[in-house]
Amino acid sequence: MSDENFDDDLDLSTLPDDELVEQMHDDLYDGLREEIVEGTNILLGRGWSASKVLDDALVEGMRIVGIDFRDGILFVPEVLMSANAMKGGMEILRPLLAETGAEPIGKMVIGTVKGDIHDIGKNLVSMMMEGAGFEVIDLGIDNPVENYLEAIEEHKPDILGMSALLTTTMPYMKVVIDTLVEKGMREDFIVLVGGAPLNEEFGEAIGADAYCRDAAVAVETAQTKMAEKRAA
Ligand code: B1M
């Protein structure tokens, strides 16, 4: 995939559409933000719709990145660079997508729980979810239950995502879920949880809909749960 790195003076605008899209997959894989911005602009200039650029060039490229991340071929720094490159393209497309009324496939509020300042994993999840076409409202780190409730009230998400990296902070996820139950709101949302010290058993015990081992699983789970919700 990275063989193209040597080719610094490749003029993207000379490539036919299919080769340019393939090149963008490689550039996304290699975390080349400027090239992704340029490729995105070229495709739009050729009359591609924003959603086609998003799906065929960016989301497909991130799908490939996600597979190699899950399989241990790519590592965190590389994936952060890919995600950053994708964000470069997304920044151009986001206003155009809003303009054409293309609906995101779902909305997620996500945040790291109270007492916990780890955010690398959560950021990856946010970016991969955005890459898969979800709208993501990222609350950042160290969120007390009030922050989640405010965001739910304001953004009316389909999914509530929580991240925790410490054994001392992961129980706080239950505080948030119990609060939703107390307020009779629990069934209004798909609750997904993740973070290195968690496991499926913990997810079940606290009443989440699913524990997500990594960002790729978070995307897959969100897509499945959204489809189930729509079907119901
Ligand atoms: Co901290 N830290 N840390 N740390 N840190 C851990 C978690 C630790 C396991 C290290 C260790 O001792 N081996 C340990 C926890 C031990 C425990 O609880 N049993 C630990 C500790 C002790 C601490 C401090 C207490 C240290 C201290 O101050 N004495 C302190 C706590 C601060 C606090 O939060 N209050 C602390 C601080 C820090 C730094 C600030 C230095 C830094 C964080 C920087 C940042 O995030 N901006 C840091 C780091 C980097 C780590 C390690 C080394 C790496 C975490 C990471 O980013 N992993 C970590 C060791 C480890 O985990 N092996 C460690 C990469 C990331 C991509 O993976 O976050 O697991 P991860 O995310 C994955 C999945 O888990 C999942 O998808 C992600 C992508 O695939 N996922 C979700 C995560 N969130 C999700 C949410 C979802 C779905 C999936 O929602 C739907």
Keywords:
232 residues, alpha/beta, five-stranded parallel sheet, 9 helices, disordered N terminus, elongated, binds CO-5-methoxybenzimidazolylcobamide, 5 strands, 56% helix
Question: What is the topological layout?
Answer:
Elements: H1 17-29, H2 33-45, H3 50-70, H4 76-100, E1 107-112, H5 120-131, E2 135-138, H6 145-155, E3 159-163, H7 172-182, E4 190-194, H8 200-205, E5 210-212, H9 215-231
Parallel strand pairs: 1-2, 1-3, 3-4, 4-5
Helix pairs in contact: 1-2, 1-3, 2-3, 2-4, 3-4, 4-5, 5-9
Bound molecules: CO-5-methoxybenzimidazolylcobamide.
Q: What do you see in this structure?
A:
The structure is a single chain. The chain is 56% helix and 10% strand. It has 232 residues and is an alpha/beta fold. It has a 5-stranded parallel β-sheet, sandwiched between helices. β4, α8 (200-205) and β5 (210-212) form a beta-alpha-beta unit. α1 runs antiparallel to α2, α2 runs antiparallel to α3 and α3 packs antiparallel against α4 (76-100). The protein starts with 16 loop residues before the first helix and ends with a helix. Residues 1-5 have low confidence and may be disordered. Bound molecules: CO-5-methoxybenzimidazolylcobamide. The site of CO-5-methoxybenzimidazolylcobamide has 29 residues, from α5, β3, β4 and α9.
